[in-house]
């Protein structure tokens, strides 16, 4: 399984970007999908998550500005980022929790996969 993240770039404060993360390979189920980010000199932090049922949760710092969504048919995760601020500047990573087969899924076994990261830079 591989995750390919894309959509990062340079944007002015107040602007918008939409990130994508697509999974490829053979697997049975994507159980949870999330976005993290890591700013220079800081630890990686959780941004948002969407679980298989469709429920979403957000970090307080992005609530109301970011929207996480998925296209299950395409095994793709999105992050629509609006009203961007300079403090949103970071490398954004996607993370998927995947069950490789039906047996693993029924037993609750899953493997965590990370995308390679995509740079988001917000200028003031």
Give a short synopsis of this structure.
With 124 residues, the protein is mainly beta. It is built from one helix and eleven strands; from the N terminus they run βββββββββαββ. The longest helix is centred in the C-terminal third of the chain and has 6 residues, at 102-107.
What helical percentage do the residues reach?
under 10%
Beta-strand fraction estimate = over 45%
- Written as H for each helix and E for each strand, in order along the chain, the element string is EEEEEEEEEHEE
Number of helices: 1
Radius of gyration over C-alpha positions, nearest whole angstrom: 15 Å
Q: How widely separated are the two ends?
A: 38 Å
Oligomer: single chain
State the low-pLDDT regions, or none: none
Number of strands: 11
Mean pLDDT across every amino acid position: 96
Per the principal axes of the C-alpha atoms, what is the gross shape? elongated
Specify the structural class.
mainly beta
User: Largest sheet, described in full?
Assistant: 7 strands, mixed
What report would you give on this structure?
The chain is mostly beta strands. 5% of the residues lie in helices and 56% in strands. It contains 1 helix and 11 strands, in the order βββββββββαββ. It has one helix spanning 102-107, and strands at 2-6, 9-12, 17-24, 29-38, 45-51, 56-58, 66-71, 76-81, 90-99, 111-114, 118-123. Strands 2, 4, 5, 6, 9, 10 and 11 form a 7-stranded mixed sheet that branches. Strands 1-3-8-7 form a 4-stranded antiparallel sheet, with no helix packed on it. The termini are far apart.
């Amino acid at each position: 399984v591989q995750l390919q993240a894309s959509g990062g770039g340079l944007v002015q404060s107040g602007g918008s970007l939409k990130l994508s993360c697509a999974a490829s390979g053979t697997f049975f189920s994507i159980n949870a999908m999330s976005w993290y980010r890591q700013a220079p000199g800081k630890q990686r932090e959780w941004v948002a998550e969407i679980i298989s049922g469709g429920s979403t949760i957000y970090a307080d710092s992005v609530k109301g500005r970011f929207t996480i969504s998925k296209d299950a048919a395409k095994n793709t995760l999105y992050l629509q980022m609006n009203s961007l601020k300079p403090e949103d500047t970071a490398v954004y990573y996607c993370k998927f929790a995947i069950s490789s087969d039906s047996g693993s899924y029924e037993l609750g076994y899953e493997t965590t996969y990370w995308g390679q990261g995509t740079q988001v830079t917000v200028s003031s």
